[in-house]
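Weekly puzzle thread! Below is a chain. First person to post its structure in token form gets bragging rights.
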Amino acid sequence: MAEPGLPPVLGVIGGSGVYDIAGLENPRWERVKSPWGEPSDALLLGRYAGVDMAFMPRHGRGHIQSPTTINYRANIDALKRAGVTDIVSLSACGSFKEELPPGTFVMADQFIDRTHNREKTFFGEGFVAHVSLAHPVCPKLQNALVEACDEESIPHVKGGTYLAMEGPQFSTLAESKLYKSWGCSVIGMTAMPEAKLAREAELPYAIVAMVTDFDCWHPDHDHVTVETVVKVLTGNADKARALADQGVEVVPGDLSDKTSLEKAAAGAERVIHLVGIIQEAPGVTFKNVHVEGTRNLVEAAGKAGVRQFFYQSALGARPGAKSEYHKTKWQAEELVRASGIPYTILRPSLIYGPGDQFTLRLAEIIRQSPVLPVIGSGKSRIQPISIDDVVSCIVKAVASGGFLNEI
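Winning reply:
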């Protein structure tokens, strides 16, 4: 923990699905140079609830670093140079135990290091040091995380062994059964050498292993889909953010139900409207989702005194569009612009990412077809964009407070 008399600076290392911390005062991204090379990303600095914080997205925004290519030494060094006194690490993991189902947070306190292709120490030839790792986790930080999980009603377990594998491939069945027989609790790819380096840097360290699925020892593992893992990962990311901040609230609402939208918007400073469909169904049309749904949400936001309205439109939205999709997206834009609420409109093209139905459907068609299908006349132009990049754009717009009345 921080030296007596010195204010603590909490460092948070975000794993898969956690790329920012909302609700920070004076948030700013700053790059920190390190003699150990380039860190994964800049640090998000700010202050929350009276505590200075520094956030490092372990894989980089956009998830551009694999577990093997992460520069763990530079990441820990950058946090140390930023004045961090304590580190909380978040890591997506698989489970080895029935009693640790997906959605559980495990405050692991032991590690088994099976990585083999990473720089694992700050010391070397000419400056040799040996550091004790018998108890690699700070008990005070671990207890604080347990209390936070209690307050947020997050399913959790205190204690457990985290097996760190090299990756990026997952375990074979034989490996999974072996690790389970060792009594391991969870398996992940990033806690080592991170915890070792934190100890060498004299930074108290604790980890939250966020369970996304059972490892392949489990009989139901083969039935786990990408969509299932992504759903749990997204839920875990929301829970992880709740441990660090309480500035963003996700509330349910029905675009066709004005009363539910008014309740959802009450007390909100900003509304981010991402709802859209790419294919109509009985009772679910482009007009009633894109136009009427947006109309209802804009009215609810206006009544609630919302200060900024984010609307995700689409590249190609225009009044004379041939497709109903683009035409109704334009009509929704018009409603947002005429609302009197400061707005920001995003016009991404095809968004791809884990679980997106368009890409999955197209991939299935390609697999089953003897020829490669062509979209439209073959002259259509698309500019695919990752869901991570879209989220990054929204986060930047929210954090900056700018981009008002812009597209």
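Puzzle host: Confirmed. Bonus trivia for everyone else. The chain has two domains: 9-244, 258-400.
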